[in-house]
Amino acid sequence: MDDTTFDAGVQGISALRDPVRRRVYGLVAAATEPVSRDRVARELGLARSVAVAHLERLEADGLLEAEFRRLSGRRGPGAGRPAKLYRRAAGEVSLSLPPRRYELVARILARALSRASAGDDSVRRALAEVAVGEGRSVGEAARAALGPDPPAAARSAALVSALRLHGYEPRREGDVIVLGNCPFQALARECTDVVCGLNHDMLTGLVAALGADDVRPRLEPAASACCVRLYVHDEEETT
Question: How many CB atoms lie within 10 A of CB 72?
Answer without folding.
Answer: 11
